[in-house]
Design goal:
alpha+beta; 2 domains; binds fe (ii) ion; Jelly Rolls; about 325 residues; 8 helices
Amino acid sequence: MNAASQFAPVITADRDALTKDFPLRPFAIRHMLSGHPLLTLPRIAQLAAELPRDLIEYNSGAAQISQDPDKVKSVDLDPVEVVKRIETAGAWMVLKRIEKSPEYRAIVEDTLLSVARARGFSSLEDAGFSQIEGFLFVSSPNSTTPFHMDAEDNFFVQIHGEKFFRIYDNQDGGIADAAQVEYSTTRHRNVKYDESFRPRAVEFHMFDGDGCYVPYQWPHWVRTAGSYSISMAITWKTPEVKRLNDLHVVNAMLRSLKLPQAAPGLHPAWDGVKLAAFRATRGIVEPLRSSQTMRRVLRRIALGKNANYYLKKA
Ligand SMILES: [Fe+2]
């Protein structure tokens, strides 16, 4: 194998996993992204310098699995320094929406296209991969990503370092009920952890070249081992996921006006009315989101005074 072919935007998985488990259950994947020039610390430091500040979130890696978001310890370094000193900074960082950069968008989309093709589709659209977004994680040795859930489907790829990744089955609401799912979607992703959840877990022990599929809203927590870590989440939202997410946002806004709402699906006709009204309003507001200041104001209006928690000064 020559140097140019050592990495490629390709994910592979067991055929049964791609046909039977996807998109409902977690499974292991392999990839060929480790060593890609865009996924090295110097290039990620450059990306951290270029990204708008509100697309970078970082804090101490010394977090609890069950972490109160209001008690997260900060790191007294600027984002570029965090990346450059990640081996010793004791930090956890995520760079959000990296697909806004054309180079990163290409790697995210090309990698997902490899999955679309393995599933028998010729394009991302045909495979149902829409609203594709990428997130890069850099973390110091022995860092913990607290128990949380994400409002999207995700192929998580481990680029560098050793990582333990545990994903929990919440399909019966036994870990997080409908109210908690709404809260995690709209306010803060963290979920309280209890050891009694352990039998529901699927564990992945990852090194460079490993990864896993994380289904929509399956809670998980992650810990790095003795080396620094670089990982990437390749995410997308199907029309059904977008619908559920929008309903959670509407319900949270109405709840804040003292109008508690049933979970999505319990009253389909009323869901449809709320969704139509919300999407019409969003169409008016959306152009304002190109400004970082306006994004901050809109988050504050929609989600309350703690919505910009990750922008507080270190
Ligand atoms: Fe996550």
